[in-house]
């Protein structure tokens, strides 16, 4: 299959807007590559915000591609009046070429204390306490290399309790859903609006042997709460989760705040990643507005991850 790779360079203030735009048109999510400090150790995470990020997405090369590209170029032009964005760069690639490019730069790496991300084509001998996630991202976002994914993994490791039910919104490659299963979740529902991501996540879930715990579905939060064939993990069938993780963009976090809050159990935890520092105040305000209490904010470069909790029933609102 042939694909169009769509790419722009964007300053830090434009990353969130470009990512949201790309997510509406692209397939398999959005890739954000920010320059890292090469002197920050074996797995650097410190971002050099003085340099532009490279934002990419992909379109299947079909009869709709030319019009989609033109529409995207028009919207980027208007966005470029407000933010510093390079002209759209487009190149045709095969799926095989894309996959091989990823493999050259994707190595085994540790996130947090116990979680290890192992590409399916790399060898690794785990330590006794390691939680290994085998990953082949394909065309889907989520390798564990991006700061937003790393912070979501770190907070999952910290807050996840054995036996919990988990919703992974915008699962991408399935990396967070698989990690939740490895950390002891009783049931995980992973959802994504992109069929390419759903396919990649399903393959990764199977290769990790957690398909009895993790179920994958196309859609958004409605896939967890509406009658679209998804089965609720809780015995009460009440559409409630102990933990919800959404590693997406600020605009989507804001728009889904109400249904996400309603889908949490009393005392349940929300992990929201993909937030630029400039968008943090409005995300915090919105989550408080829907009744969630801030627990922790993680920082890596210009990115923020918010941990919030729904008050327990005996805590009131």
Quaternary state, please?
A: single chain
Number of domains: 2
Give the low-confidence spans.
Answer: 227-238
Radius of gyration: 19 Å
Query: What distance lies between the first and last C-alpha atoms, to the nearest angstrom?
Result: 52 Å
Q: Could you name the CATH homologous superfamily of the largest domain? A: Vaccinia Virus protein VP39
> In what range is the share of β-strand residues?
25-35%
Sheet of most strands: 7 strands, mixed
CATH class of the largest domain: Alpha Beta
Share in helix: 25-40%
CATH fold group of the largest domain? Rossmann fold
Shape, per Cα inertia axes: globular
The total count of helices amounts to 10
Number of strands: 14
CATH architecture of the largest domain: 3-Layer(aba) Sandwich
Structure description:
The structure is a single chain. With 317 residues, the protein is an alpha/beta fold. The protein has two domains: 2-103, Alpha-Beta Plaits (2-Layer Sandwich), CATH 3.30.70; 146-315, Vaccinia Virus protein VP39 (Rossmann fold). 31% of the residues lie in helices and 30% in strands. It is built from ten helices and 14 strands. The protein has helices at residues 15-25, 65-80, 95-105, 147-159, 175-182, 195-207, 222-225, 250-255, 257-262, 280-289, and strands at residues 2-10, 27-33, 53-60, 89-94, 109-111, 115-119, 131-135, 165-169, 187-192, 214-218, 241-247, 264-276, 293-300, 303-309. The strands form three sheets. A seven-stranded mixed β-sheet has the order 10-9-8-11-12-14-13, sandwiched between helices. The chain has a four-stranded antiparallel β-sheet with strand order 2-3-1-4. Strand 9 (187-192), helix 6 (195-207) and strand 10 form a beta-alpha-beta unit. Residues 227-238 have low confidence and may be disordered.
């Amino acid at each position: 299959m042939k694909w169009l790779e769509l790419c722009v360079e964007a300053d830090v203030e434009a990353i969130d807007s470009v990512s949201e735009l790309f997510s509406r048109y692209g397939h398999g999510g959005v890739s954000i590559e920010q320059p890292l400090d090469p002197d920050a150790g074996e797995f650097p995470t410190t971002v050099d915000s003085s340099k532009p990020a490279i934002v990419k997405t992909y379109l299947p090369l079909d009869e709709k591609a030319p019009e989609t590209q033109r529409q995207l170029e028009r919207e980027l032009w208007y966005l470029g009046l407000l933010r510093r964005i390079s002209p759209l760069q487009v190149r045709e690639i095969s799926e095989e070429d894309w996959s091989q490019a990823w493999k050259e730069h994707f190595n085994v790496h540790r996130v947090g204390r116990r979680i290890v991300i192992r590409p399916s084509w790399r060898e690794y001998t785990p330590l006794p306490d390691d939680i290994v996630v085998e990953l082949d991202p394909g065309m889907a976002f989520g390798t564990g290399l991006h700061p937003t994914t790393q912070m979501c993994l770190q907070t999952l490791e910290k807050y996840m309790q054995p036996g919990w039910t988990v919703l992974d919104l915008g699962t991408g490659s399935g990396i967070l859903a698989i990690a939740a299963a490895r950390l002891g979740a009783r049931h995980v529902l992973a959802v994504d609006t992109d069929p390419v991501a759903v396919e990649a996540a399903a393959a990764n879930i199977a290769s990790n042997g957690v398909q009895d715990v993790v179920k994958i579905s196309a859609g958004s939060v409605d896939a967890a709460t509406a009658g679209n064939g998804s089965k609720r993990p809780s015995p009460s069938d009440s559409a409630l989760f102990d933990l919800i993780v959404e590693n997406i963009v600020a605009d989507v976090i804001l728009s889904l705040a109400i249904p996400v809050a309603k889908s949490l159990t009393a005392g349940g935890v929300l992990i929201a990643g993909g937030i630029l520092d400039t968008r943090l105040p409005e995300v915090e305000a919105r989550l408080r507005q829907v009744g969630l209490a801030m627990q922790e904010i993680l920082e890596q470069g210009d990115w923020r991850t918010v941990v919030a909790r729904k008050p327990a029933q005996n805590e009131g609102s």
